[in-house]
Structure formats: structure tokens, C-alpha cells
Amino acid sequence: MDKFDEKVIGYESTKNILRQILDTLKRPEIYKSKGASIPRGLLMESDPGLGKSLLASVFIKESGRKSLVFRKTSQENSFLDELRAAFSAAKEAAPSILLLEDLNLYVESNSPYAPEWACLQACIDDAKATDLFVIATTNDTKYMPPSLLRPGRFDYTLYLDPPTGKTAEKIVSYYLRDKDLAEDVLISDIVKAMPKVSCATLETVMNLAALNSTYQGHEHIYKDDVTDALLQVVYKLQKADKGTNSMELQKIAIHEAAHAVVGEVLNPDSIGIVSIRGNQSCIGGLENGHSTYLKNEEELLNDITKALAGKAGVALIYGTMDVNAGGDIQNANRLLDLWITPLAGAGFFEIESADNRMSETRLFSNEAIKAAKMEELYRRAYKILYDNRDFLLAVQKELLEHETLLNSDLTKISESCT
Q1: What order do you get walking across the sheet with 156-159 strand by strand?
Q2: Residue 175, Cβ neighbours under 10 Å: how many?
Q3: Could you give the 3-state DSSP secondary structure of residue 160?
Q4: Looking at residue 409, which CATH number applies to its domain?
Q5: Whole-structure pTM value
Q6: What is the total count of domains within the chain?
Q7: Which of 30, 55, 266, 341 is surrounded by the fewest CB atoms within 10 Å?
């Protein structure tokens, strides 16, 4: 086991690429003898907190080279001078590694033509004659110029996907190894309740759970401590004193229960958390399916059906309009736009032209198809809830009693209703 396996859980393909780059830096003559050019740069991109800096630090340590770390701390001209100075110091220390942290913060204008990019590109080119390897991290390459991203400046560009499944569970288990957890805390619940397992977020969640537990005088860290921390850190939902009449709260609970039930029926074991906890001055809820990326048309249509389930649930149980469904309908409308135009779900006649303009006839046809499809999927959600009414009412009952339910809670309720 090397330092990559010792320090980093998952990312096996990424670690193998990093090992190969390290080998070229340690044995350059062997590679040159076969006509290979030694790589000069590596760019790692991911959402915040997914391990870019950790991988970079392990890479640097394994290389045995002198290293410098540069972050943006100044603005405009002084920053450019500091960037040039960092490259100059790294070249003088060669063979060396220069780590450029958070490239996405270098430019405020979101322009690929910003002077900061031109300066960085020139610094990289000026270092080609020296034994300097550049590692850069960024949360987003969207506004970086293609000329900077091309091979020869960054020979390798690695994107780190959020860990899922067993890998995510291993990461969570590692961070919980020294926590005094009660038996009702399940690793799978924590993984499924977080849209993306960020190590930084996870550490914050579990630290808050420990603080909650200690303040409440609990013997261990219980599931309720973890759930409360998840809602505060991940979903920004805090308990608030507010008066809500019983009927309104029941409708909110049925709305959220409906999302969860339809999600579980269409994709069993997919709902990570469902809650009726409100935020600020309003009462609302949330449900999170742990599958973040749509893979096919079926998943897209299932997500639209799930979005419409809250409205369908209130109509089924109370026979009234759901005044909390506005955001859900907008979300369903957005997903249907995706289904109709770029994906041609309703046929090629409905897609936009190259200049993003539609004739009046096509716009009318587009809206008619979308309305019909939304009606179809709403009726689908209604039927699923009608067929699973006992499950729906049981989830509502538990939400009214406990406020928040995790994946394992939904599984138990489902099994009791089967």
C-alpha cells in the first residue's frame, strides 16, 4: 500500500494516473529513451470538498520534490506580480512542483480573455525549459480559455466525480471511526441523505452531531443528533418557533410524503431524507434522492413524476389545491423542457433551431405537447399514490410525529405496509 491508498479512499483510476505521472517524474530518462515527452502539468477539477488538495499533497509528498503552494490573496496587478514571483521561485528550486490552488478564484470577470489567464499561460510557457511540474485545482473550468486547457500546458485534466455507493460508505466509515455512535446510526442513511459526499461537509456534519449530543446530555451520538446536523449543514434548515395550524401541517406532511412514496415506488431505496422542517419564516419540506445524475429517459420522466407527486398527494387525500406545489411545478416544467428540446423526447419537429428560435406554430405545438405530457405524468403520480395509499398515510403519520425520516425509516414503513 502506497500513500495514495493510505490517505485517499476511492478514486482508483485517478490514483493510477497520478502514479504513472509520478513514475515519469522519477524516471524521466527511461521515458525519454522511448521518445516520450515528460508531462509538465496536471489540472484537477471537482466540486468543493471532494479531495483535490488531498490528492495533490500526496502526489507532492510521493514525488520527493521541493514544492510551493500559491493561492490568490491579492487583486489585479499585485496578484499578477505575485503569480510571476511564484513561478520564478519554483523554477529556481527545480526540480520542483508548483501547486496552484483554486484557479476558479483567479478571475472575477468570468471572461476567458482576462489578463490573469494570459499571465498564467505565459508563466507556464516560460517554465517549459525547466524541470517544473505544475499542479492546479479548480471547482470549474467553465470560464477558462481553451488555449490554457490544451495539452502541453496541462497534459492531464482529471475530473473527480462525487463518490457513490460502497466507496461513499467507506469514506463515511473512515470519518466516523472515532465517533461514539449509537446503534441506530447507519452509515447508509448518512450517505443517502447527502446529495454528494464531501469530506469537508461530512466532517462539519459529524462535529455538529457530536456537539448536539453533548449539549443534550446524550450517552452516545444518536440518529436524531446526526439528522439534525444534516438538516442544518447540508440543507440549511434550522428549527424555528412558528405557529402552524394542524391542517396546514398535515397537508405539508402529505405533500412531502407523496414525493418520498413515488420516489421509492419508481426507484426503490432511492430517497435519502424527507422532512417537514421549515426554513426561516415559512414551513416547507424536502426530499432527496441520492441519484444525482440522470442516465436515461426513464429516469428523467420518473423525476418529473416525483416532482408532481406533492400536488397529487394533497389532491388525493384532501381534495384541494396544493398551494405549496409552485416550485415543484416549475421544476417539472424545466425537466420537460429538457425532454422536449435538446433530447427530442417528443420528436425532432419540436427541437430548437441552431439560432435558438422557433416559429410561432412550433412554439404553440411545443407548449401543447408539454402540457399534455405534464398532465399524463401528474395522473401517473396520482395513480401510484392511490395504489400505495397506506404507505402514503403511514409516512405522513411518521413525519408528523418525528419531523424527519431517513432512508432506513422509509424502508421500515414500506415493509410494514406490504
Answers
A1: 66-70, 96-100, 132-138, 41-45, 156-159
A2: 16
A3: coil
A4: 1.20.58.760
A5: 0.79
A6: 3
A7: 30
